[in-house]
Design goal:
The complex is a heterodimer of chains A (277) and B (465).
Chain A lengths: L1 E10 L2 E7 L1 H6 L5 E5 L7 E9 L4 E7 L3 H7 L6 E2 L1 E6 L10 E7 L3 H13 L3 E8 L8 H7 L2 E6 L6 E2 L2 H10 L6 E5 L2 H14 L3 E4 L15 E4 L2 E4 H4 L2 E3 L5 H8 L20
Parallel strand pairs in A: 8-9, 8-12, 9-10, 10-11, 12-13
Antiparallel strand pairs in A: 1-2, 1-6, 2-5, 3-4, 3-7, 4-5, 13-16, 14-15
Helix pairs in contact in A: 3-4, 5-6
Chain B lengths: L18 H4 L12 H8 L9 H5 L6 H9 L3 H9 L5 H7 L6 H4 L11 H15 L13 E5 L3 H12 L3 E5 L8 H4 L8 H13 L3 E3 L10 H6 L4 E4 L5 E2 L12 E3 H10 L16 E5 L3 H12 L4 E5 L11 H9 L3 E3 L2 E8 L5 E14 L5 E5 L5 E4 L2 E4 L3 E2 L3 H5 L24 E3 L2 H4 L4 H22 L1
Parallel strand pairs in B: 1-2, 1-4, 2-3, 4-16, 6-14, 7-8, 7-14, 8-9
Antiparallel strand pairs in B: 5-15, 10-11, 11-12, 11-13
Helix pairs in contact in B: 2-4, 2-8, 4-5, 4-8, 5-8, 6-8, 9-18, 13-14
Classes of the chains: A alpha/beta (277), B alpha/beta (465).
Chain lengths: 277, 465
């Protein structure tokens, strides 16, 4: 059982929680994730480690309320316990030797972009951060990014805050201005990562993306999280979750991620979509 | 007193759920013998001098001795006899392929059917689980810590035997429940999870500690376990890495490894509405493979509502490695077998979902290195089967996590740990057994390996003192 020691709404649908898991906190590195199960009937769900505190023994998760599990998790409060919490899983971000990076976060993906930006900053690299949101109301982690970024660019789709632009526009503008990045890291919705990768491909800039396929075990035993990278099959949970954005088959992953859309049912309710095609 | 001998040539029939009823639920198919049935079946045993059955058993269970105790209605004594060599009799009695092990050697099998050794073992184990109220006495601890990686059959047996010897054992399990294949692989209708829980509880009563959500190789390395004060380590991490064919269309929605399909269904209980984990319910499913895992996947798919479930196997029906009993259960439940067939590619619709699997007919050629005739494609014999799910049950190999994160431990070309006669690996103090050493095999072999390793660890630690 893993106790919740902190709970904060970063915006109306995005919650930050600190979970007491000292052994995981001790080992965690930027880029890695945990798999949690809220209770006995719950699903196993992966969440990236947004931050970790070795002294306090806590791991930070940031999630958006979208379905059953995140809804259930959001009803828990400080002092409540999560039944299962396993990690750190996946490979750490490969940030050694990076001198000048651009970290691009989209929406709640910024929660995953943050630990990478933080680690790069710790390593002494120059870090530009582009954080894109649909509108002002859902901006998260602005202050946290300010602490680790040499330059922070916030963009909103509707222009209610920062620059009215897509993250790809801002990125292109910076590259055209002469920023020479050794690495671009894009973390956010799949279409966003796909288009950032297409943008940087034209300039030949190394680009890493963090993939979010559906996962069950997280240790490499089921292949549910398999993705096509450069024509090869890789398991996101053990070979990733970060991959070369120029080689990922985003279209296939988008289709695979839709596998159970419309099938999720309320607890105890009879499965409405007893699919027979 | 004259012992009653039952000269019946056939086994006492095992009560089973009706195929057309049971293929829609996950209730255990085989209901078990009553006391009367068990005694009648036990009386078929000749208690012959040579006891070839004992040698047929991978762990040499003292078969005629325990059967004799059934005849004399001393069921607890029968249980104690079995337990001297078999740590998990309620499980082995259900899932062992007795027909190729003990029962294949039985003298009664020459003229008729062998004694139903498996059914008798299950009867004794169930009787004990249901009637024994005595709490196991916790052995006196010798204070020496041993780590076990993996709470599957190998790890659980090793832990149990070490605990009996007084060692302070902690089992580290990657999943959130203990049992390994016993909980994620073998379905509820073959092995009720309540049985596995009872066996795990019995281990805890012996003093074994089980820590779940501990992925060794990630949260702690094997080397760090030694730094934490463990004096020896047993690795029973299994062979959980799934194999895919590498054909077109394997990335389509609806293609699963058997591991994923079974883990959703069995470990995460996707067949039960109360549990959140979804499983794809398709009206037509193809399972590729011919082993026990393929049978399990096919029978689960049927129970999850598929009207048509196909098993596609590239060799002949008789060559399928699955347990014959499970093949017959599958046939009775309406599974369709397409032998001498192999998938060529999987076709999808515009949304990237499976709509059919294209197969080709196979022919058998010369014998290959395994002694079996090699199957090769028959030209221009392609055919389509319309399905919405394809489950790959074509084998698994050891997960590379431990070997990639442990210094000085050798594996062979297949990724299996290399061990000596005492089950010790090339790394001092690290032992291994089960599928992690042999590749995918059986529960009883894993269990036997766990027992052997416990002996090896005990000798190793006693020498070190």
């Amino acid at each position: 059982m893993y106790k919740i020691t902190r709970k904060e709404y970063l915006n109306p649908t995005v919650i930050l929680m600190d979970i007491h898991a000292p052994l995981i906190a001790r080992k965690a590195k930027a880029g890695q994730f945990v798999i949690l199960r809220v209770d006995e009937f719950g699903e196993r769900m992966p969440l990236t480690i947004a931050d970790f505190d070795k002294e306090r023994g806590t791991v930070t998760i940031i999630y958006q309320i979208v379905g059953n599990t995140t809804k259930l998790l959001s009803t828990l409060n400080i002092g409540d316990e999560i039944m299962d919490f396993a990690g750190p899983l996946g490979n750490a971000s490969e940030l050694d030797g990076v001198k000048h990076a651009c970290v691009v976060g989209g929406g709640v993906g910024c929660a995953i972009a943050y630990p990478v930006a933080k680690q790069l900053h710790k390593n002494g690299a120059k870090v530009d951060v582009i954080a894109g949101f649909r509108s002002k109301d859902i901006i998260i982690l602005e202050n946290e990014f300010k602490n680790v970024a040499d330059n922070l660019y916030i963009t909103t789709d509707d222009g209610s805050y920062g620059e009215k632009a897509l993250v790809t526009d801002r990125l292109r503008a910076l590259i055209e201005q002469g920023r020479s990045y050794d690495l671009v890291i894009a973390i956010g919705p799949l279409p966003m990562m796909k288009f950032v990768s297409l943008t940087t491909k034209a300039y030949g800039i190394k680009t890493t993306v963090s993939l979010n396929p559906i996962m069950i075990d997280g240790t490499g035993m089921c292949g549910g999280c398999r993705v096509s990278v450069g024509g090869e099959t890789k398991f996101a949970c053990v070979d990733g979750p970060e991959f070369d954005g120029h080689l990922v088959d985003f279209d296939e992953l988008m289709k695979r991620n839709a596998a159970y859309r419309g099938v999720e049912h309320e607890r105890g309710e009879n499965c409405r979509m007893y699919r027979s095609l | 007193m004259d012992k009653k001998f039952n000269k019946a040539l056939k086994k006492i029939a095992m009560p089973e759920l009706e195929p057309d009823v049971r293929n829609k639920n996950f209730e255990e198919v085989s209901l078990g013998y009553t006391v009367e049935m068990a005694i009648n079946e036990a009386e078929r045993c000749l208690n012959c001098k040579h006891k070839p059955c004992v040698n047929g058993c991978p762990v040499n269970v003292r078969i005629p001795e325990f059967i004799e105790k059934i005849v004399s209605k001393e069921f607890e004594e029968a249980y104690s006899i079995i337990k001297t060599t078999n740590t998990l009799p309620a499980i082995c009695g259900r899932v062992c392929p007795q027909e190729t092990q003990c029962e294949s050697k039985c003298v009664r099998g020459i003229k008729g059917e062998p004694v139903a050794i498996g059914r008798l073992e299950r009867f004794v184990a169930d009787y004990h689980l249901n009637n024994n109220s005595k709490k196991t006495e916790k052995p006196h601890s010798n204070g020496i810590k041993v780590a076990v990686v993996g709470a599957g059959p190998a790890g659980l047996s090793c832990a149990g035997d070490l605990a009996v010897l007084g060692y302070d054992v902690t089992v580290f399990e990657a999943f959130h429940s203990a049992g390994g294949v016993l909980v994620y692989g073998i379905p509820q209708f073959r092995l009720p999870k309540e049985i596995v829980e009872k066996e795990v509880s019995a281990l805890k009563e012996l003093g074994v500690k089980i820590e779940t959500n501990m992925v060794i190789g990630k949260i702690l390395s094997v080397d760090e376990l030694f730094e934490q004060g463990f004096k020896a380590c047993f690795i029973g991490s299994g062979a959980g890495l799934p194999r895919f064919m590498g054909i077109d269309g394997e990335g389509l929605v609806g293609v699963f490894s058997a591991n994923e399909y079974l883990t959703r269904t069995n470990l995460m209980k996707a067949y039960n509405n109360k549990y959140d984990t979804p499983i794809m319910h398709s009206s037509a499913v193809a399972v590729v493979g011919g082993g026990n895992v393929a049978m399990d996947a096919a029978r689960c798919a049927k129970r999850l509502g598929a009207e048509k479930v196909y098993v596609i196997y590239r060799r002949t029906f008789d060559e399928m490695p699955a347990r014959k009993e499970e093949v017959h259960h599958a046939i009775d439940e309406g599974i369709i077998f397409k032998c001498l067939s192999n998938p060529v590619r999987i076709l999808g619709d515009k949304d990237g979902r499976v709509k059919a699997v294209e197969c080709i007919e196979m022919e058998l050629g010369e014998q290959d290195s395994s002694g079996r005739r090699f199957p090769y494609e028959k030209k221009n014999s392609e055919f389509l089967i319309e399905v919405q799910s394809v489950i790959m049950a074509i084998g698994t190999s050891p997960n590379p996590l431990i070997r990639n994160t442990t210094m000085g431990i050798e594996t062979n070309k297949k990724g299996c740990f290399v061990v000596d006669d005492y089950m010790q690996t090339t790394k001092d103090g690290v032992f291994a057994g089960g599928d992690a050493v042999t590749g995918a095999a059986t529960v009883i072999l894993a269990m036997g390996a766990g027992k052997k390793a416990a002996k090896g660890i005990d000798e190793y630690l006693q020498l070190k003192k």
